[in-house]
Amino acid sequence: MVNFEVDPALVRPLAPRGVEIDCFEGRTYVSLVGFLFLDTRVLGLRIPFHSDFEEVNLRFYTRRKGPEGWRRGVTFVREIVPRTAIALAAKALYNEPYSAMAMRHSLAPGSVVHEWRHRGKWNRIEARYSGEPRPLESGSEAEFITEHYWGYTAQRDGGTVEYRVEHPSWRVWAAPTVTYDVDGVALYGPAFGSVLRGRPSSAFLAEGSGVTVYRGVAIAAPDR
Question: Architecture of domain 2-220 in CATH?
Fold first, then answer.
């Protein structure tokens, strides 16, 4: 998770209807995140050749007041996966901004690499780490970045869908050595490209866990 502090004006127009930008100590972040999904199932069913795959996403942080208090979530600028069927399914279920590209990854002791090809160029994120992961520190920036358990996505008709994401708190390596080579302008546009050319505010490597993503629920209607 490679994190950049940004002007909230950059992401505010992308926030779905009915939610607001979530900040940490007055700072607004976007994160470039690489995941490896394993044993993925849809409605309890494993889809042949589509259960293990990479994902790289660019996201920012949003929230909405629920009956129990603030529901802290994420909203995606773009999500990249290696198979067209995965991208189409995610668009159909949630209208998430998925794209399919050639991807690859490598895992070795002390190193994690994610790569994806766009317009003939391989983009890359690499994290090098040592030691053991540690539990998140309460009130820390790492906790803010990783502990978002809701997703908010705008719909084609202007409304918003909210979905819950469930997983145990992740342990993290809080200060890995991260290098990246990303064509941010081509992938995300000039404004985000400028952000990704800058120096990250922080980077974390999360251990991961089992994750459950629940069905989406409409929480904001479009203008009529």
Answer: Beta Barrel (2.40)
